[in-house]
Amino acid sequence: MSFRKIFTPHLGDPNCHTLEFYEKTGGYEGARKALRDWEPDALIDEVKASSLRGRGGAGFPTGVKWGFVPKQTDKLKYLAVNADESEPGTFKDRVLMERMPHQLIEGIIISCWAVGIHSAYIYIRGEYVHAYQRLVAACAEAYDKGILGSKVLGHDFHLDITVHRGAGAYICGEETGMLTSLEGERGQPKLKPPFPAIEGLFGCPTVVNNVETISNLPYIMEIGAEGYKKIGPESSPGPKLYCVSGHVEKPGTYELPMGVNLLELINDHCGGVWKGRKLKAVIPGGSSAHVLSADECDVAMDIESLAAAGSMLGSAGVIVMDDQTCMVNALLNVMKFYHHESCGQCTPCREGTGWLEKIVHRIAYGHGKLEDLDRIDTVCDRMVGKTICVLADAAAFPAWSFTQKFRDEFIHCIEHGGSPEVKRRHPDRIGGGLHV
Amino acid sequence: MSDLKFSEKGMKKYEWLLTRYPDKQAVLLPALRIAEAEFGELGIPEMKYVADLMGISPARVYGVVTFYTHFRRAGTGTFHIQVCSTLSCALRGSQELADHIAKRLGIEMGETTEDGMFSVSKVECLGSCDTAPMFQLNDNYHENLTLDDVDRIIEDCKKESARGGAR
Amino acid sequence: MSEATNPETPLVNWVLNGQPVQSPAGMTIFEAAKALETTIPNFCYHPGLTIAGNCRICMVESNRSKKPVISCSERIAEGLEIQTESPMAIEARNAVMEFQLINHPLDCPVCDKAGECDLQDYSYDHGPDRSRFDEEKNIRHTKELGPTIDIWGNRCIVCTRCVRFCDEISGTGELCVVERGDRSVVDVFPTVPIDNPLAGNVVDICPVGALISNDFKFEARIWNMRKTDSVCAGCARGCNVEVQSLDGFVKRLVPRENMEVNKWWMCDEGRYDYRYLLADERVTACTKDGEPVEDHDAHETLAHWLQDPGGTLGILVDPYITCEEAFLVEQIASHANNALVGGWKPADGTAQSFPGQFTISGEKAPNRLGVEAVLGKLVFGSQGHALRTALEKGQVSTLIVFAGFPHPDPDDAWVQAIRKAKRRAVFALQAGAWTEGAGLVIPGASPFEKDGTYANEDGRLQRVRSFHAPGDVEWSHDLQRLQAVLRIAGLRPRSLSSSAVFRELADVKKPFHGLSHSTLPATGAPLPGFIPLPVGVEGGSV
């Protein structure tokens, strides 16, 4: 079966975000079909059968997640769409929301019908102003045309969608952090259990799904679980958006079957490493994934294969680094990110992320010591698995993998007075104070 | 103490928002966005106004506002340039971009020009990694930037400001 | 708590450190382990607050998880096996302690919390003996958060106990955490300081030295202070307190846990009300007709007055005397041919209730109910009225007044009335309208200097104890002075301790039957048969 793009075929058209265009290209047929032909329980089973897995990072089977929501409950149920895309290297959901907002709305209708939800929130990161405006406009169109509201597509099913803007916090991409933020609080992750499916938004059963995950649903309605499962590897099938950035000739969002080879993605689709340089390293799934050295990059970009390679698909944010990249400086950048974004709730993360940045900073600026590498290792060890959410782990993974796989470079920095890149850029700061 | 007040339109939006959530506090972030749009920034009086309007403690509002980085805090310039400095952008020259902007405006990262026209700060990943280097200028993304682009954009801002516009 | 005490709650079989144990279902690992006398360190957990689970120090090893779990939020379950001292659990705690300490200023030598600081205590058990942190420490604000509370932000571990207290218990919400990550620290809104009737509690529950009481700052080292369990006399709630003193000076009051009375809290009104102990007007020596006399002379004079009152003997009590003192008052009265005993009490204030189910009583004295249980339920009502009428008519020859109230109360009607007695002895805390013109003035003990029992507004009998060390008291307890007088007058064979006096009281007064100081639980005990009445209704039905 040849691969058919479902997210990106029409992106060339400037009007692809409009309802008119979307309906012209078969839009909302999946939702009509779901409401007309599918009992909710059977629909959940169909999504389970499709093996659709979450596209936000954790890769949890979507149908299974839906199945956790209690069928009998006095409480309202909610769908919270995670559009707080903020994992460094990831920008696929932005494309979907800016260009294909109706596909998302259609997916939301299908999800809500399956789980019996009448109120959905799209939590979109605050920086995405354009995407927010597109979503708001698309919702307005949908309400106007009876696609949303008291009779969804003419069926006896009511559904409201509210687009909710975040305000700048990576942690709100963590599902419970997002829920806390949606509730109007500091976006700090919640203790689990209870899990959101049982007690989530406003204390009610809540499904949390990523934008891309939900945008798959109209297609599953169209071709059925059986057809969907044939795309890519059986355990994590489907079309996939890969975000490629960094040192490639043509960075961008690429829609390919799940499991595309990473080198093929870089070389055939993205025009190879830029400026004719050689590949040094790739972060395959957003900055919290373990970095792959060039010789580890002949790997299929799916959940299992990358796990087997010691990394993860994560959000499929592929960051490519050429052979002139200073890995110490690159890690410093990543450590600065996690330090900045730690919510500060749990001790190991609050203190550990800052500590890691300071150590790497010292190495980059010429104050490193050989024992710092072991220290990074043990600090990471003391952070991982000891916090409410996995931000601490997300900070530790790159720290571990960078220092392990590019140890020689770190040692070189330590022994030769700092990172060559820092020396070039800030000759005055090398050997100076500890902070920029 | 202060005579801050949402406009009729802002108040209508706020009241509509109240109907969209089962819990009042959930309206806080959107309400702060209205305040930001109507008052231009979120300083002490603005936060207090929102707290009083919503009947929640000002401290709670303060904790929320300071948790997030994307609210317009008091003292932000008319044009706020937020340079993405996370890895993908850094790999493609965001540091040079930031240095250039700072030099051009004569201020350091995190500062505001004396005339209050520009603020510039380094921010974390803006989700536009394929168009690096880039920055967000107020609400808008400016992507695939060269240093010449930066000069042109800064000039455009100055012209816009001279015409009396902003944002 | 309720799960633990409800016999209906089913038991769960689980394993704690290799021992099969049973605990009531629904308890957290932390609570269940505590009930089994296995203590797990904690910072953010507080039994009176919602669970935050952020400090991570209470991590333990579970057979149900690859990672360590936090015992403050995970609940026990059938078959659960928990290790609190396994290598994984110890390493987890060591990890948290290392992280807690890297940016901590380690300024214990100048920190008021030192000596009662959880961070300090746990650092001995779990902290590294040297730091691996070679970096510059983070700096956070040190400033006033309100009129009574300062924050030393560098010490803050962002456990949010104080924030939760203001949200959940006082309901005033003045505190918040600002910023995020390792910049986060507790703060107030810039124009709204923390200033609520329960604010002082946030200092108590701060597990480190971040929140500091202005009142206590740099006053004393914790370990040097003498600590006395007693009861606050500020209102009829009778909050359990620890009176902490140094060299005979009270330095601060902190609440003691008593789930039946005050839980873990006390109000600021009570907390900071001890300076009157050192008031200029404090009566420190006996006087006779305005001239200083030896204690013995004063006692002898009063004994003579009692032997020959020259007519009607009046005794005016206040609700600050202990039950034991009230019992001695009754002895005095019972030996007189013609005695009138009446009570005076301060005007009622307004009761205040808080979301955390804490109340400040509207009745602004500690022992009305106890005095009524001894002297009759009308003592502050019609008996008091009768005494005043007799006084006003000049029918009282000898009057003994107990003026033990901490703050001078110009109750004009009473002040005018007592002056009409032919001669007057006043046990007074402070000189003023009540002592003016009195033939005898005898120093009275404050509630913190008394030894005996008070009954609170619920009829719960609780021990009060003097914070003074034996021998460092210049003014001895009213109880001892009264016994001295009675002894000289031949009405008591010898002076006894307050416990012994209580035994006599318990023998003869029905509400006290079966009670004794030694068997009175630390949390007090309800007076049998007592039914609380609303404030202002005359005569609790003892």
Q: CATH class of the largest domain in chain C, please?
A: Alpha Beta
Radius of gyration of chain C: 27 Å
The portion of residues forming beta strands of chain C comes to 15-25%
Which stretches of chain B are poorly predicted, pLDDT < 50 over at least 5 residues?
none
| CATH architecture label of the largest domain in chain B | 3-Layer(aba) Sandwich
Count of all domains of chain C: 3
What oligomeric state best describes the polypeptide chains here? heterotrimer
Instruction: Assign the CATH architecture of the largest domain in chain C.
Output: 3-Layer(aba) Sandwich
Order of strands across the widest beta sheet of chain C? 15-14-22-21-20-16-17
Structural class category of chain B: alpha+beta
Shape of chain C: elongated
Mean pLDDT of chain C: 93
Percent helix among the residues of chain B?
40-55%
**Largest sheet, strands/sense/barrel of chain B:** 5 strands, mixed
Largest sheet of chain C: 7 strands, mixed
Uncertain stretches of chain C:
535-542
Describe the structure.
The complex is a heterotrimer of chains A (436), B (167) and C (542). Chain A is an alpha/beta fold and 436 residues long. Chain A has three domains: 19-229, Rossmann fold, CATH 3.40.50.11540; 239-322, Ubiquitin-like (UB roll), CATH 3.10.20; 327-425, NADH-ubiquinone oxidoreductase 51kDa subunit, iron-sulphur binding domain (de novo design (two linked rop proteins), Up-down Bundle). Chain A has 18 helices and nine strands. In chain A, helix 2 (29-37) runs parallel beside helix 6 (101-115) and helix 13 (327-341) packs antiparallel against helix 16. The model of chain A is unreliable at 432-436 (pLDDT under 50). Chain B has two domains: 8-67, Orthogonal Bundle (Arc Repressor Mutant, subunit A); 79-162, Glutaredoxin (3-Layer(aba) Sandwich), CATH 3.40.30. Helix content of chain B is 47%, strand content 12%. Chain B has helices spanning 8-20, 28-39, 44-54, 58-67, 87-91, 94-105, 147-162, and strands at 79-84, 111-112, 118-123, 135-137, 140-142. Chain B starts with 7 loop residues before the first helix and ends in a 5-residue tail after the last helix. With 167 residues, chain B is of the alpha+beta class. The mean pLDDT of chain B is 95. With 542 residues, chain C is an alpha+beta fold. Chain C folds into three domains: 2-99, Ubiquitin-like (UB roll) (Roll), CATH 3.10.20; 132-277, Alpha-Beta Plaits, CATH 3.30.70; 303-345 and 367-393 and 407-423 and 431-526, Rossmann fold, CATH 3.40.50.740. Chain C has a seven-stranded mixed sheet, sandwiched between helices. In chain C, strand 12 (240-246) and strand 13 form a beta hairpin. In chain C, helix 8 (295-307) crosses helix 13. Chain C starts with a helix and ends in a 16-residue tail after the last strand. Mean pLDDT of chain C is 93; it is low at 535-542. Classes of the chains: A alpha/beta (436), B alpha+beta (167), C alpha+beta (542). The interface between A and B is large, with 55 and 42 residues.
